What does this fold into?
Amino acid sequence: MRSKDHHQHDHDALGHADHAGHCAASDDSGRAEHAGHADHSDHSGHSDHSGHSHGIRADADRRWLLIGLALIAGFMSVEVVVGLVAHSLALLSDAAHMLTDAASILLALFAMRVAARPAKGGYTFGLKRAEILSAQANGVTLLVLSAILAFEAVRRLISPPAVTGGLVLVTALVGIAVNIAAAWSISKANRTSLNVEGAFQHILTDLYGFVATAVAGAVVLATGFARADAIASLVVVALMLKAGIGLVTAASRIFLEAAPAGVEPDAVGDEMAAVENVVEVHDLHIWEITSGQAALSAHVLVVPGGDCHKVRRDLQDQLRSTHGITHATLQVDHLGEGEHGVLQIGRRPAAGPAADPAGHCEGSHGPVHTTGAHTH
It folds into this structure.
């Protein structure tokens, strides 16, 4: 696994062993990159992996997750006993939710360890999406559990059992304190990770549930209205549904390789096409390897004789500074350069999937981005 400084490299799009490319670099760094390569006639293009790191984020701190796990597991066992004694569905539903909290933290810890393994063999990105699998499992668990609890809550609304309001209130108040401590602990870990965010959402919905349970216990204690317990359970169900749908949706976007939330590919393509000496950008793809780690690939055509190495660096700087995309693979070619035996690359038609005259972009797809007026 290489660091950002050592991982940046140029490689030919058709698999040539050297990296001379066909685009002459006019600045000092470009000349240094191509020192000793006088003949550019055998190369049809080159690609670049922008500087990036595949390492797991250091701030995804396992220690904070373990502290949260200890708090949740310890209180959960107490809550089960009290819920059975008090005949409180609200407490038992909270305890069931706390069980999924503990499971979600354990799953997050396991996924973090697996995702930290280096890329090798057929897993060229490593196992980073193990964290997304964990987040999706957490979301699905919340949805399944909310359905079970909703059914039981409706049943108890129709035929409410006797509820011991005092025990419910005291236990819920202690639960609020425990969940605040657990939520604070997990918030210290890296919440940009969808995996950690999944565990955090479990804890947060449990905290809201305890607040609702405390209110229900107070109502039962003051008025004897036993249905307040089932109503509190439905509040917990609504919160679980919201968190579960959010996690499943976010994880599904990553698995379907959608662009990161807040990043509009058409706008990014137009910005790239506006860079000096860029004629056209097509085959643009933007996706997330894992949460918080966006990647981009594109085919870029530059003006004949233009410094495509400088264009590549300018594009990488723009993507990094404007959109936070540090993993960019760019294939950069001259447009229509037919002299000295260099492969000619024609512009793609503005509409339709047709290939360019040289057949270089056969099977390409997606909109074409140019500096002039165009459609997406």
